[in-house]
Design a protein that fits this description.
This protein is an alpha/beta fold and 264 residues long. The chain has six helices and 14 strands. It starts with a strand and ends in a 14-residue tail after the last helix.
Amino acid sequence: MQDLKISLIQTPLHWHNTEANLNTLEEKIWQIEDKADLIILPEMFNSGFTMKAEEVAEVMNLTSFRWMKQMAAQSGAVVTGSVVIRDGEGFFNRLIWMRPDGSFETYDKRHLFRMADEHHTYTAGKKRLVCELKGWKICPMICYDLRFPVWSRNLSDREGKMAFDLLLYVANWPAPRVGAWDILLKARAVENLCYTAGVNRIGEDGNGVPYSGHSGVYDPKGETVIFMEDREDVATVTLSGSELQRYRDKFPAYLDADDFTLSI
């Protein structure tokens, strides 16, 4: 694996205002001084976390999708984050992994936040996504997924090949529970012997829910690579593929992991 440079965009979001959010995020993307390989946006970055899906939903290949395509092409980086997508008769909290050449992958949020009735508004995803970038295998997930270690598990083939090297979460994780966010990001890194990144928003949404950021990146020991606290910021960090492999070689705990099959 080559070294991987990732940029985390921590920002307030304009409630149900796609144009304002895209304009704000575009400005922040151009603030990235060193060329990034991967730019990570929050969950529902064009609207804020909302259950009013019909008001904000887009079909694929519309405004936000095309904007991501443009940003990826112009920045030369993969751009990822989630938006509300109408697909057929359903609505999805869908992460889009947009490459600079215009090709893309998608991941639909598996665990829907029932305390906000997300499970009554959106359709749950059924398949994980693992993407490759500069020799890294990257598994992107969305917010509430962070609480479920089985879904996030880094399954290996017992021959030293793990499923992913970087686990990332895009989120609208409220301030009252940010302590759990901090703990679980570190836990996912340690138990999966991988880097883990989380990008959360700040500010207050249209329902009066406050968010306090705490976006960050943690190494496989659970140690902090970068931590953004509660402020509007763009942070870029370089992850070392060689350091990750050395640690896995020295501490191959995955070889003693329990076998199981996940039923969906």
